[in-house]
Amino acid sequence: MPIVTVAMYEGRTIDQKRGIVKGITDLIARVTGNPADSVHVVIDEVKRENWAIGGILQPDRQAVASASRAAAGTAPSQSSPRPVKVNRSGIPSLELTKGMNTQFNVCHETVGADALRMGVCHHAPDMADLKWTAKAEEAFYVVKGSIRVRWESENGDKGEALAREGEQIFLPRGLSYALQATGEPAINIFAIAGGPTSVGAVVGPAAGDKLRAAAAHLG
Question: Residue 20 to residues 35, 43, 111, 137, 194: CA-CA distances in angstroms?
Fold first, then answer.
């Protein structure tokens, strides 16, 4: 009877919790050979003020990160809402899969966004497949070339979508998909909305490490 305890910040939706426990249960059952009905998953929600990394409570770490963004000109004032300009130096460039370079221009790491991730992907003609699961609503707008998405829904429906320059693809929450090369270089602008970001507030090179870890987890 495997028992898995997941400690995470409070605030996830019930749908997100369903996705977490299903994913963990499927993995444990597959690896151990135990029936899924015997796998127990316990979610332990923790307040940020009760979680520390490196001896520093998360609210204190976030305060330091906010101050760093402010010094770099990438953070809004805490006194009142205002637009935020994201400087090029503040955007980590990531190779999420071979031949696919991604910049998360708007997310928690760059501007403190709670429920929006947006950026640009550059695709090589022979990029490796990027496997992902849409935990929130996603959209791709093709600026150059073309991209292919092979998808599968939670109920087993499957399909393929090809978007060329000037076209876009919308992916509802819950789809698993592979973003694939089409034999030509491509650029797409992506947006992910409808749920909290999956990584904490960090800046600089650490942001890239956190985003890579998030990509590996979702993939």
Answer: 18, 9, 26, 17, 17
Q: What is the pLDDT of residues 23-47, one digit of tens each?
A: 999 889 988 989 999 999 999 998 8
- CATH number of 3-46: 3.40.50.300, 3.40.50.12280, 2.40.10.340, 3.30.429.10? 3.30.429.10
Domains 3-46 and 88-218 share a fold: no
What are the residue numbers of the active site?
2
184-201 core/surface letters (b: 16 or more CB in 10 A; e: else): ebbebebbbeebbbbbbb
**pTM exceeds cut of 0.70:** no
Q: Could you tell me the fold of the domain covering 88-218?
A: Jelly Rolls (2.60.120)
Closest CA relative to residue 132, chosen from 42, 43, 26, 211: 211
Residue type, 70: A
Q: Sketch the domain layout of the chain as residue ranges.
A: 3-46, 88-218
Mark 80-112 as b/e (b = at least 16 C-beta within 10 Å). eeeebebeeebbbebebbebbebbbbbbbbbbb
